[in-house]
Amino acid sequence: MAFLALTGCISNNPGLSVEPNTVGVPTGFPSVGVPTATVVPTPVFSLQPLPSINAISAKVTEIEKVTVDKNDPLFPSAAGLAVNVEVYNKTDKDFDLSFVSVNLKGSAGVSANEVTTTPANWLTGLLPAGKKRVGVYVFTVPKNNVGPIRIEIELRPDLPKVVTTEEI
Predict the structure, then answer these.
(1) What is the DSSP secondary structure assignment for residue 12, as one 8-state letter?
(2) Nearest to 123 by CA among 92, 163, 95
(3) Cα 88 vs. chain centroid, distance in angstroms?
(4) C-alpha 11, offset from chain centre
(5) Rounded distance between C-alpha atoms, residue 106 and residue 139, angstroms
(6) Across 38-42, 106-110, 133-137, 163-167, least confident range
(7) Contact 86, 113 (CB under 8 A)
(8) Contacts (Cβ under 8 Å, ≥6 apart) of 57
(9) Quick check: 48 pLDDT over 60?
(10) Cβ atoms of 159 and 56 closer than 8 Å
(11) In b/e form, how buried is each residue of 35-47, taking b as 16+ CB within 10 angstroms?
(12) Distance (Å, rounded) from C-alpha 111 to C-alpha 148?
């Protein structure tokens, strides 16, 4: 059984350089070359810190019963809800709305299906400092789903969700 020990060398360049170390490798085995690799960490996304959790707020401003036309002969139109969500940026910097997500759970606690057909108009782009914007999120909800619904609004992965319960 042969073992090849690797050592990591950190240089002035960002990243990690890995080079072979043949100390302790038994003789009589063929030499195995290990290529040098440089790993440079790349962030998936960067979140700017906010002054406080209350600096960005979200609320449901309206819930409207709608008929969702799926434009598909195999799936007929369905009953739905259009949920208007207002985001208010109380900071002195633009806020990226690309992370905003809205989830609706019916009275049985099951997530409703979100659809992108009219009147859906999701929040996108940058919200300037001191400004408000409203987006519309549409969900299919069975007609017999009576009782309270739960709406969860996530502004960014590092911020707490805004949760509200509404009667329909």
Answers:
(1) S
(2) 95
(3) 19
(4) 35
(5) 10
(6) 38-42
(7) no
(8) 87, 88, 90, 162
(9) no
(10) yes
(11) eeeeeeeeeeeee
(12) 13
Count Cβ atoms below 10 Å from residue 140 Cβ, excluding itself.
21
Amino acid at 4: L
Q: Which residues pair with 114 in a beta bridge?
A: 139
Is the whole-model pTM more than 0.90? no
Using alpha carbons only, what angle is made at residue 8 by residues 3 and 11, rounded to the nearest 5 degrees?
Answer: 155
Q: Which domains does the chain have, with CATH numbers?
A: 5-39 (no CATH), 53-167 (2.60.40.1240)
Tell me the CA end-to-end span of the chain in Å, nearest whole number: 69
pLDDT tier at 10 (50, 70, 90 boundaries)?
Answer: very low
CB atoms within 10 A of CB 14: 10
Residue reference for tokens 């789903």: 145
- Both tokens of 58, joined, read 């979200």
Whether the Cβ atoms of residue 118 and residue 167 lie closer than 8 Å to each other: no
DSSP string, 99-123: G-EEEEE-TTSPBPEEE-STT-B--
d(CA 109, CA 122): 23
